[in-house]
Write a structure and sequence with these properties.
- The structure is a single chain.
- The protein is built from 7 helices and 8 strands.
- The protein has 211 residues and is α/β, with parallel strands linked by helices.
- The strands form 2 sheets. A 4-stranded mixed β-sheet has the order 1-4-3-2, with helices on one face. A 4-stranded mixed β-sheet has the order 5-8-7-6, with helices on one face.
- A hairpin with a 5-residue loop joins strand 2 and strand 3.
- It starts with a helix and ends with a strand.
């Protein structure tokens, strides 16, 4: 399969995923196409989305301004001369295991100030919450996946969220909201300031910032 055919198939896949109402596709559309940037996932999925939109998304994802630029760029680059792009890590989405999706979503949105992006399944067994650039995936399990009796509690930090600024205010906000704190705000030996929250399932989430 040629590289262009690969991109054509990608565009058709994004079109299909949009029609199927897939939230990860909505997140990609919003992040890569400026005209969708201010819409919620639901609004993106309800909005008209044509093959031309999907092609523009794929082109932008590949580093081109639009589909025509992608075609032109591929036509002047032979496989032997096309430079291999350096890997670029966009973001991470830690996954936390929970016994009750509804209860977990209520905690992260009601107590920690996150927003629910989506739930999946009937009944829901997977969800994603976000706050600013931080994303957490919540996965239902019927029994604990970690034997807490054999692990030192502070080794059970499941996710670390790094702040650009405002860590003291966030800590004080959580303290005032009676959020369960495993560790209060402190300065680590390496200079970072951290505090750790415990969710209803015992998952430890660390909030950190440069000192």
């Amino acid at each position: 399969m040629s590289q262009f055919e690969h991109f054509r198939k990608q565009a058709k896949l994004y079109l299909k995923w949009h029609r199927e109402g897939r939230h990860p596709a909505a997140a990609a559309i919003r992040s890569l196409l400026p005209r969708f940037r201010d819409l919620s996932d639901r609004q993106v999925l309800e909005h008209e989305f044509k093959l031309a939109d999907a092609q523009e998304l794929v082109a932008r994802k590949a580093g081109f301004e639009n589909w025509e630029a992608l075609k032109k760029g591929l036509s002047i680059m032979s496989p032997s001369t096309a430079p291999e792009k350096e890997p670029s890590l966009a973001f991470s989405e830690p996954q936390l295991f929970v016994a009750d999706i509804g209860q977990a979503c209520d905690f992260y949105t009601g107590k920690l100030g996150f927003t629910l992006r989506f739930t999946y399944g009937e009944p829901p067994f997977f969800a994603q919450v976000f706050r600013d650039g931080a994303r957490l995936n919540l996965r239902h399990v019927d029994r604990p996946v970690v034997d807490t009796d054999r692990i030192v509690p502070e080794h059970l930090v499941m996710a670390t969220i790094v702040l650009n600024h405002g860590i003291k205010k966030l800590f004080l906000d959580y303290q005032a909201a009676d959020v369960p704190l495993f560790q209060t705000l402190k300065t680590e030996p390496w200079g970072s300031r951290t505090f750790i929250v415990s969710d209803p399932d015992g998952n430890l989430v660390c909030f950190a910032a440069d000192g």
